[in-house]
Write a structure and sequence with these properties.
This protein has a single domain, classed as Rossmann fold (3-Layer(aba) Sandwich), CATH 3.40.50. It is 41% helix and 14% strand. The strands form three sheets. The chain has a seven-stranded parallel sheet, with helices on both faces. The longest helix is centred in the middle third of the chain and has 20 residues.
Length: 374
């Protein structure tokens, strides 16, 4: 949907969306838009109606139209939650994504949508979050130039946006919990010249900003700085909310390189080094969505805290690396490992571990196929 449309066209689009599993409500900031909103039942963030849900069952998802966001929304609906999507006006204009709602579960009235000008507006975000007990900030960004990449300026925008989201969470009385989607890249890029560097890479590990800058790993830098900002705000605010971060590996799934191109290509910068060190890992988008909901439910029980690493496969074989490269359509030549093409005799420098997440999901008994340690 766009902001400049005839009332008839806008009404037709809303009706079409409502015939699908997604029930849409949004914001118009212009006077013309407000008139449309009155006629169509669309309301600004500060004037939301009672959606008939208890706060514990109403969850807010930012970037809910993203590849990961849609999977999370589907899982939340299937678990009986009601979902409020916060999208920007730029996201609202991508009609094809709004129409991809067939996979979002059978509930027609489980979703409401709030459109904000931009995610940098903490006050507008606070109004959008009002009434929700938890915010899932999936931190999904696209390349504004339409190119397949992630620039240094995007890293700065990601960190600032995350900070504003956290400020909005702190300002919103109903918000008790926040789950931030970070990245495994915020854990693995460390200064390997240090002699006492642990060979186990887990939730305790943090990437080094200087390494990210030197190697121009902007996606890793953006996720690292966003996480740092989130924890700083969560601890500094007078009205503290509980924050948990999930650090997933490369997100894969159906057509992942086409539907999630910017994060995919940006994640794989440094592909050869990650593979050679045993740090190249993937996670299926649906499994990652299950992990988000599992962590959310554990937070409600008071048993989730800190950071969690999430992956379901570590790429250790030459042929697996070549297949992954082919799936992305990128020209990536994995280095030869060991004595044969499989790399079976190669001694990897590091080992990934997500024992903490596996234990949490096992205890909640919610995730039917949890992430595991390879």
């Amino acid at each position: 949907m766009g902001s400049v449309q005839s009332p008839e066209r806008l009404r037709a689009e809303i009706d079409e969306i409502r015939r699908e599993p997604l029930s849409c409500a949004g914001v118009r900031t212009s006077k013309e838009g407000d008139e449309f909103g009155d006629k169509l039942g669309l309301r600004p963030a500060g004037a939301m109606v009672d959606e008939g849900n208890s706060e514990d069952r109403l969850v807010c998802v930012t970037s809910g139209l993203s590849y990961l966001g849609r999977a999370i929304v589907n899982r939340l609906l299937l678990r009986g939650y009601s979902v409020r999507l916060v999208i920007t006006k730029e996201e609202e204009a991508r009609e094809e994504e709004l129409r991809e709602t067939e996979s979002w579960g059978p509930r027609n009235n489980g979703i409401s949508v709030v459109v904000v000008e931009k995610l940098s507006d903490a006050e507008g975000l606070s109004e959008a979050f009002n009434g929700c007990s938890c915010v899932l900030h999936t931190a999904a960004f696209i390349d504004p130039a339409g190119l397949s990449g992630y620039t240094k300026s995007m890293a700065e925008i990601e960190a600032k946006t995350c900070e504003n989201v956290m400020v909005a969470c702190a300002r919103t009385a109903s918000v008790r919990n926040c789950v931030l989607t970070s990245s495994l890249l915020a854990c693995i890029w460390r200064d390997t010249s240090q002699g006492d560097l642990s060979t186990i890479v887990n939730h305790h590990c943090r990437s080094d900003e200087s390494v990210c800058l030197d190697k121009k790993l902007w996606y890793a830098l953006g996720k690292l700085r966003a996480e740092k900002a989130a924890w700083r705000i969560a601890h500094q605010q007078i009205r503290r909310f509980k924050l948990v971060t999930i650090c997933p590996a490369l997100i894969t799934g159906p057509q992942f390189s086409l539907k999630n191109p910017t994060p995919t290509i940006a994640y794989l910068k440094g592909f050869q080094e990650m593979f050679a060190d045993g740090l190249l890992a993937t996670v299926d988008v649906h499994r990652l969505a299950e992990a988000h909901v599992g962590v959310l439910e554990a937070m409600n029980k008071g048993s989730a805290f800190g950071r969690y690493v999430c992956f379901d496969r570590v790429i250790r074989r030459q042929d697996e690396a070549e297949i992954l490269a082919g799936e992305t359509g990128m020209q990536m030549n994995p280095p030869a490992l060991g004595d044969d093409a499989s790399g079976r005799n190669h001694l990897f420098r590091f080992e990934l571990s997500n024992v903490k997440l596996s234990g949490l999901l096992s205890r909640t008994q919610r995730c039917s196929d949890p992430c595991h340690v390879n």
